[in-house]
Design the sequence.
């Protein structure tokens, strides 16, 4: 996995570490992280062979920050899916309250759909100054697939005039 977890996510995990160690129920949580490919089967086995819940939780929290930029979001989703939504919400509060982070300006991306992606694709133009945009239809299809795969509701508007684009 390339790269590590974002710094503000690592900080949130560190600030809530003791609480997470005490509260997490790990068995099903780890299964979700394996299925989302945040953890490997070998990591799963390493965690689950630990004797106590505390040492299992320690092992997981030590692995997570090194499991790539998706690890935090997948961890929060797994917490929600396993009835531990309160822990995911506490993590998100910590992330939002980090003053030097731009994430306090963002919203959490757990909802489905995540929002609406409006694609405006102009291929044909009314003005003679602009030529037909060959390949624009392919771009539109690829962007629709991309945003759909990211769980956005996609709306496409094609060949709109400048007046419609401005006034909507």
Sequence:
């Amino acid at each position: 996995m390339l790269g590590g977890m974002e710094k503000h996510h690592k900080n949130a995990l560190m600030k809530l570490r003791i609480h997470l160690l005490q509260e997490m129920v790990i068995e099903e949580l780890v299964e979700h992280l394996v299925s989302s490919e945040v953890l490997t089967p070998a990591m799963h086995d390493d965690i689950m062979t630990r004797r106590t819940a505390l040492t299992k939780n320690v092992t997981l929290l030590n692995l997570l920050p090194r499991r790539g930029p998706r690890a935090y979001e997948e961890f929060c989703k797994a917490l929600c899916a396993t009835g531990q939504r309160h822990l995911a919400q506490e993590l998100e509060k910590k992330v939002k309250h980090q003053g030097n982070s731009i994430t306090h300006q963002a919203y959490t991306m757990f909802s489905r759909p995540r929002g609406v992606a409006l694609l405006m694709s102009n291929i044909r133009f009314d003005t003679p100054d602009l030529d037909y945009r060959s390949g624009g239809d392919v771009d539109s299809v690829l962007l629709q697939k991309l945003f759909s795969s990211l769980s956005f509701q996609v709306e496409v508007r094609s060949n709109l005039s400048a007046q419609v684009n401005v006034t909507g």
Summary: The chain is about 50% helix and 5% strand. The mean pLDDT is 86.
